[in-house]
Amino acid sequence: MKNFPVNVDGKEYWISRSNAVVGIIYKYENGEVHILANKRGKGCPDYVGKWNIPCGYVDYDENILHAVSREIFEEAGLNVPEKDWSLWAVNSDPSDEKQTISFRFYTIYWNLYGNLTSVNSEPNEVDEIKWIPFSEVQNYEWAFNHLFVIMNFIEEVESGELSEGKVKLY
């Protein structure tokens, strides 16, 4: 069963397992960290025209590793095997606007996974996909709390503190 929206008194709620995944893929180019991001299209239920790290809900019939691989495939066209993801952080703060527990994964081996494309996404879900240099991330309007997520992630990458097995809890 897929997730689905329900409207109650004019407010949209998503019926789901209340688990979401965020897939951070980064690369070094010209000595700078770049983050893979996509611009939300008019087919999205919210934050249309804003940028985000590829993300989405965990479907009822999948685990979180499969979910992050699926979301990256749908929103960016990259086929990242489940074994290539590392868990970086878990946000279980109940004040999160979508009331989700968010599992944040990362990988760096982007060049092994194919070419960027939104052909696998829902109709009009993704307007644009690109690599954004860290020095420019604050020039974009971000959906959700993704600017905060990027800033924290890049801080760990640049300080050398990013390490597999070390998971942040929020």
Oligomer: single chain
Q: What fraction of residues sit in β-strands?
A: 25-35%
Largest sheet: 8 strands, mixed
Helix content: 10-25%
Task: Please tell me what the overall shape is.
Answer: globular
Number of helical regions: 2
Task: Write down the secondary-structure element order.
Answer: EEEEEEHEEEHE
Q: Uncertain runs with pLDDT below 50, 5 residues or more? A: none
Mean pLDDT: 91
Span from first to last CA?
29 Å
Question: Could you give the count of β-strands?
Answer: 10
Structural class: alpha+beta
Tell me the radius of gyration: 15 Å
Features:
single chain, 170 residues, alpha+beta, eight-stranded mixed beta sheet, two-stranded antiparallel ribbon, 2 helices, 16% helix, globular
Which helices and strands, and how do they pair?
Blueprint: E1 4-8, E2 11-15, E3 19-29, E4 32-40, E5 51-52, E6 55-57, H1 64-76, E7 86-91, E8 101-107, E9 126-133, H2 146-159, E10 168-169
Written account of the structure:
- The mean pLDDT is 91.
- The chain has 170 residues and is of the alpha+beta class.
- The two termini are 29 Å apart.
- The strands form 2 sheets. Strands 3, 4, 5, 6, 7, 8, 9 and 10 form an 8-stranded mixed beta sheet that branches. A two-stranded antiparallel sheet has the order 1-2.
- 16% of the residues lie in helices and 34% in strands.
- The protein is built from 2 helices and 10 strands.
